[in-house]
Amino acid sequence: MVLEPGENAPTVTALDQDGEDVELAFDAPTVLYFYPRDATPGCATEARQFDRELEEYRDAGVSVYGASTDDVDSHREFRDDEGLDFDLLADPDGELADAFDVDRTRGATERTTFVLADGEVQSVYEGVDPDGHAREVLEDALEDGLVTLSELD
Asked: Which residue ranges run through the membrane (predicted)?
């Protein structure tokens, strides 16, 4: 069973697509979405849509990270091919997925998204449809008052 809203978020470290350590404590609003595999149709759709909404996420003060059991090289190629502007976290040993209790019994992580802030899980989405999910998560965070859009100059 995945971590639920109200539970403490684990502090985690993972390698990004460039092989750099990324430490996440989830004090600031963050979306961490797990997806099965790089360069597959559903995963590409989801990644492109998070990237398309990224400016609004950033305006709301929200960081976005994607994670899968693919390795650093696969993530780098996928990020470059799709022109993504957010980090993809490599989790080949499943340690990140395990920290969030995300199922990976079929060798890949189940499509699961966490909204985290103040060191806690705020929202969880399981078994999501990748098409439209990025917008749904942003709208829910805004509606719930977790974040607000900044005034644009």
From this structure: none
Q: Residue 149: inside a domain, yes or no?
A: no
- Residue given tokens 């090289």 in the structure block: 73
Structural domain boundaries, residue 90: 12-143
Is residue 43 among the annotated active site residues? yes
Q: What is the pLDDT of residue 1?
A: 79
70 within some domain? yes
Catalytic residue from among 9, 31, 43, 128:
43
Q: What is the pLDDT of residues 58-99, one digit of tens each?
A: 999 999 999 999 999 999 999 999 999 999 999 999 999 999
**Cβ count within 10 A of residue 118:** 12
pTM: 0.94
CATH of the domain at 132: 3.40.30.10
Is residue 152 in a domain?
Answer: no
